[in-house]
Amino acid sequence: MCYLIVSYLQRSEDVELLKFFWKILKTVIVIVNEEVAIVKEGHTAREEGDVLESTGEPHSSSDLNVKFLDPPQQSREIFLKEIIQSILSHPSILAHFLFPSREVTLGKSTTGFCEDMVACLAEGLCSVLVEVKSLSGEATLSSSLVGYSDKCVALLSDKIYTNQSSLISLLHHFVQSTKKFMKQEHVGKMLSILLSFSLKELINLKVKSLTEKGKLLIVLLDNVNNQDHSVIPVLGLHKLETLFSLLEVVDNDSIEKACLQMLSCYPLASVAMPKSVFIKCLASKSQTRTEISCIVICQNVEAREWFESWIMERKLVGDHSIVLQVVLHYINRCPERLSESKCSFLLLFISSFTCLMKKMCIIYKYILHVFCCIMNVNEHIKAL
């Protein structure tokens, strides 16, 4: 029904009508999701021998009073999948997604109405697809989204579109809603394009916050960190340097984990790590950044010089239990460097390690003392 409306949209009122149909479809998906969940709970309860009380009809948070009139001859889940696939496969929906395709604008000027309709279509698709949780057949849905993912890549590749923050915001919303259905090749292409942008296009350097392109990059990096189907794209040194440089400007778990995943998969990528980023990772108390430092030290000869200089300047003051992990990797990877002209470095390490052990002994003695006091109190209570 949505695609029939799109084919004949002429007025601003029609955009409101399209929004209404998206709302109906979203409500139906929520109800079917709840039905599927109830059926699964019933199967699980019967297998475990429990009695599951009926909770009545599925409840939807929508203000629409949507009800199914008759029991379906086959699963409503199957019907719903067919509806979604019919919508996604219709050429009018795809042609107006994100930006009007060439066949739509050929010989015509783009109007404000056309822009409103494009935004309505993208937002409606997002609101629907984000609710697709319990439906089976993810592979089929992924295939239906290929054309939309192609348009996402095309938008990022066009400078005219990438300068429009509203379009990038729509793209970010769409990728966020469909990232579990998106094919690896599209994730890899979009990551490669985004990392070809300059750092200031990804981050507002004045306030150190992510731009719309930066937020989109974070969503795509979540696919790199996904343990079930991780996407590790092959990137050039310049793009790797851009990715690593993000560590210096913002503290973000997704960026840290993606850099660690990238280095774990391609250890030689450590040659693209800038010195300032490496030093910041050394100074951080983040375990992920420490693991990144360990990989870089093992693979990048120049980074060992940076590490030695940093250790000598810092003299391991304060809490250096994290640094100790990096030092051990350093010694294990290149023990010959300690036998050359690094005596002062070795002595510093030994004295620092001894200092750390002393602190640990003091803490251990304090804990032991507290434990003995508690035991004495317990003995005294028993005696009473």
Overall description:
The protein is an all-alpha fold. Among the domains are: 1-50 and 80-97, no CATH class; 241-339 and 347-364. It contains 20 helices and two strands. The chain has helices at 2-7, 12-47, 76-89, 91-95, 102-105, 112-129, 138-144, 146-157, 159-162, 165-178, 184-194, 199-202, 212-225, 237-249, 253-265, 275-283, 287-299, 301-314, 321-333, 343-383, and strands at 203-204, 209-210. A two-stranded antiparallel sheet has the order 1-2. A hairpin with a 4-residue loop joins strand 1 and strand 2 (209-210). Helix 2 (12-47) runs parallel beside helix 6, helix 10 (165-178) packs parallel to helix 13 and helix 11 packs across helix 13 (212-225). The longest helix has 41 residues, at 343-383. The chain is globular. The chain starts with a helix and ends with a helix.
